[in-house]
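Annotators were shown the component list below and the corresponding predicted structure, then asked to write short factual statements about the assembly.
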Amino acid sequence: MYVEQISIFIENKFGRLAEVTRILGDAGVNIRTLSLADTSDFGILRLIVNDAEKAKSVLKDRGFTVSKTEVVAVEIPDRPGGLADILQVLDAGGINVEYMYAFVERCGENAVMIFRFDETQKAIEALTAKNFNVLPGDRLYSM
Amino acid sequence: MFFNEEFETLPREAIEALQLKRLKSMVARVQQNVPFYKESLAKAGVNADSIKSLADLARLPFTYKQDMRDSYPYRLFAVPMEDIVRIHASSGTTGKPTVVGYTQKDIDTWSELMARSFVAAGVHKGDIIHNSYGYGLFTGGLGAHYGAERLGASVIPMSGGNTKKQIMIMQDFGSTVLTCTPSYSLYMAEAAKEEGIDFRDLKLKVGIFGAEPWSEAMRLDIEEKLNLSAVDIYGLSEIMGPGVAIECCEAKKGLHVWEDHFIPEIINPETGEVLPEGQKGELVITTITKEGIPLIRYRTRDITSITYEPCICGRTHARIARMSGRSDDMLIIRGVNVFPSQIEAILMGVEGVEPHYVLIVDRKDNLDTLEVQVEVGENIFSDEIKHLQAISTKIEKQIKEMLGVTCRVRLVEPKSITRSEGKAKRVIDNRNKA
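Structure shown to annotators:
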């Protein structure tokens, strides 16, 4: 039920983000969604792509520090309070959200959020028990 | 104005005759009392009797800082411990500190040379000397203090830190002379300005600044902001402490080395060969009157040049130029000695950190700053910012704890630090560009 995300270390330097996306584009890797977390010195670019292995290897070849992480994609009813309902389940289960960001496409009437949890398996169990739809990676890569 | 006119204005022939006599006597003493010198002099095939002229100095072996470390703590002392009245030590940032001992006569000599230095800088009996050099194992505070007392001036033993109080005391006590590192003087002036106090309204007229490298541009800046005459002082604990050499206020062109107590030489740091007057090289000093821990041809690692040209002040002692660098890779950051290898050792101790780093030293708001750039490899990379920040904080904390220097760690991309062929360039020092 995990989704593979790749993370790239990027210094806050002119043109670095453009370079990463260009390398991926040239390799035929399609970015499904992304989030960029930044500090004054550096940023961490987190990507969900159609081919994580390939993305990782082309970026590593170009000298970037890349890592792979398992994240969880959850469908959220696209209505007021939709996100709050999910977070309430996690809160009740004592599960920490390390970070989260939205998937750019909608899935039917639902939005998709990407979560990074401290306890991934526990989070998936808690969400599925409450009938939230946790999406498998394959769905996202090809969406 | 002189403190000891007779000695400060000795004709060159008289200085050299005195140096030769004192050198022979010192060599005889260490040969007898210090096993390290007994051995190294024997190896070089020299003894006190074989020194016929000052040129024979070049036949004597060098003494290195490492020799002092290897002799930790007391093995280079040339007198029994009961004759040692004071012990100082260098910061010891590479492990064991360099320990130096003084007999009563050494303290007397040091006080006199510091008093001479004060007078050369334009300080007189009746001045109020605000001494912000650190007191303690570091020689700066007590060295200047005893010199001030010997001169008969009033000394305020402030030591470093507590800037607000420093400014208050200077205002209220009417300090006329300030002794501290050049960067701290500017820091104090800035801090005062924030409190609405202009240093130019204080009574300060002379500032004696040393213990770190500074430029002519910085002198002008200090003189403008503090409204005083700023002079450069040189010293090192291994040789004595502050007051080994000082600029005279008349010329401010080179630092007079007190040649009746020290013999300066300039050598090529690579070959050890003695260089002629005016050429840049490493300063080597032989102490010729010290009792506690006399040193033969001590390699200071400081780069300068020497001139014997007469000075307008009337002092006949040779002058060395403002220090222009080091022949090793030691950095002086806010008065603290830092070797890149020490930072490297700390980085290597942090799990996952790779050995690619560069130190960037700068001077911002008149204070030295140190930035340590560290490459982020896969071993330490995380998709969470807090983990990366924890690593920088950990390194910053360890450097502060082990070296006593505040730094900023900046994580950079792999391979962004230039790899050089041969010796890696570990240091970018932007301070002397001004």
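Statements collected:
1. The two ends of chain A are 16 Å apart (CA to CA).
2. The first strand of chain A starts at residue 3 and ends at 11.
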